[in-house]
Design brief:
Largest sheet: 8 strands, mixed
Strand order of the largest sheet: 12-11-8-13-16-17-18-19
Helix content: 25-40%
Oligomer: single chain
Mean pLDDT: 94
Number of strands: 19
CATH architecture of the largest domain: 3-Layer(aba) Sandwich
Distance between the termini: 40 Å
Bound molecules: cytidine-5'-triphosphate
CATH topology of the largest domain: Rossmann fold
Number of helices: 13
Radius of gyration: 24 Å
CATH class of the largest domain: Alpha Beta
Shape: elongated
Length: about 400
């Protein structure tokens, strides 16, 4: 259990802070909510008190004997300010201490995550952008806002990311520190495939696999938080799109192949700096797709389904790689009588020719659909980084650190 301070400043998105608080308490954390006085215009103190089980005050004149304005910050393991308004960012950047939240920010030794939410004009204003740069330079995490519907009819960058995204990213910072969400992918374009392809047999049946897409989702979410422009080519994943990410839905291996080539820049579009093939792509598809549903009694007992080979998308992306473009493959491996997991993986890395191979040991069936994972990232030059075990967002942060270190300077 960790001690999390949830700062809430005065914007309409304050209502989402209640859901974020819920996510933190359900993960077993002790949460102290510190709203600004303006935040209480949007959500009452009683809501935060009931959901956190802790007292809620906004000024430094309550519980003076406890020296709350110093103690709350000093004893926290993580401070998350969501929503962080333009005014709150300005006060934090200039070191003001005119309410309990800003005083807490000045006394906190732990990592601090600001989750901005405001109108697009306010976010893009040079004053706000300077404040964000100042806070980041001092080591705070400032998440990029989501793009979408704002208060009233407006839409654009400035929306608070969904609480589930914020909770997952906050957990990464709690575990690994603010550096895990550094802006080292700013200005980079990354394309990630995720999920598992489905190869149709007839209008209702398909050959598929058990990939949930969760690791690919975590890779996309963390890359967006680290400043990247992210495209997620998603094969049959029902999860809500992570904030800041453009999702391109696909079904079959052939559709995934077309989308990956288009997004990689080989079709003349913007070149991707990083291509990550985390999708489970079917190696084979039925040779023909029945136009009508196959009836069990129409053709007697079928004894086989003829299959044909699908293109190896990863190998094609490697072959078409542009200068400076990094191609990352995934491999689910088991050890066998001939060799252990890493020996098989090294052989695959050489065979595929990609720059990095993220290796999952699936011997015990522990990866598919599970929340936790652990991987080894093998590099063509022989390096091997062990990451995890831990939640998939933590694994994603480790994978991006390995990738970012290998990007050619922008
Ligand atoms: N991949 C691909 N196109 C395919 C099949 C796989 O791009 N048609 C990619 C996957 O996204 C992953 C990597 O290749 O990044 C996995 O390698 P692969 O050799 O397909 O793994 P296995 O199917 O496990 O191979 P093998 O049976 O040879 O171990």
């Amino acid at each position: 259990m960790s001690r999390i301070v949830l700062g809430v400043s005065g914007g309409v998105a304050a209502y989402k802070a209640a859901l974020l608080l819920r996510a933190f308490t359900e993960a077993g954390h002790d949460v102290r909510v510190v709203p600004t006085p303006a935040a209480l215009h949007f959500v009452g103190a009683a809501t935060f008190e009931a959901l956190s089980g802790n007292p809620v005050t906004t000024d430094v004149w309550s519980d003076v004997d406890e020296v709350a304005h110093v103690r709350i910050g000093q004893t926290a393991d993580l401070v998350v300010v969501a929503p962080a308004t333009a005014d709150l960012l300005a006060r934090a950047a200039t070191g003001r201490a005119d309410d309990l939240l800003t005083a807490t920010l000045l006394t906190a030794h732990c990592p601090v995550v600001f989750v901005p939410a405001m109108h697009t004009e306010m976010w893009l204003h040079p004053a706000t952008q300077d404040n964000v740069a100042t806070l980041r330079r001092r080591g705070a995490v400032v998440l990029p806002p989501a793009v979408g519907r704002l208060t009233g009819p407006d839409s654009g960058p400035g929306r608070l990311p969904e609480p589930a995204d914020v909770a997952a990213l906050a957990a990464v910072v709690l575990e690994s520190g603010a550096a895990a969400l550094a802006q080292d992918l700013a200005g980079r374009r990354v394309v990630i495939s995720a999920g598992g392809t489905r190869e149709p047999l007839d209008p209702v049946r398909y050959l598929g696999n058990r990939s949930s897409g969760k690791q690919g989702w975590a890779l996309a979410r963390v890359a967006a938080a680290r400043g990247a422009d992210v495209v997620l080519v998603a094969a049959n994943v029902e999860l809500p799109a992570p904030f800041g990410v453009r999702v391109v839905p696909v079904g079959t291996a052939e559709e995934l192949r077309t989308a990956m080539h288009a997004e990689a820049g080989s079709g003349g579009g913007a070149m991707a700096d990083v291509l990550v093939m985390s999708a489970a792509v079917a190696d084979f598809r039925p040779a023909s797709v029945a136009g009508a549903k196959m009836k069990k009694d129409s053709a007697g007992e079928p004894d086989s389904v003829p299959l044909v080979r699908n293109a190896d998308v990863l190998a094609e992306l490697v072959a078409g790689r542009r200068p400076g473009q990094l191609v990352v493959g995934f491999a689910a491996e088991t050890g066998d009588a001939e060799a252990d997991v890493l020996t098989h993986a090294r052989a695959k890395l050489t065979r595929k020719g990609c720059d990095l191979l993220v290796v999952n040991d699936v011997s015990a069936g522990q990866v598919f659909g599970k929340e936790d994972n652990s991987v080894v990232v093998l590099a063509a030059d022989g390096a091997a980084d062990e990451i995890g075990p831990g939640p998939k967002d933590l694994i994603a942060a480790g994978i991006w650190t390995t990738i970012a270190a290998r990007l050619t300077p922008a």
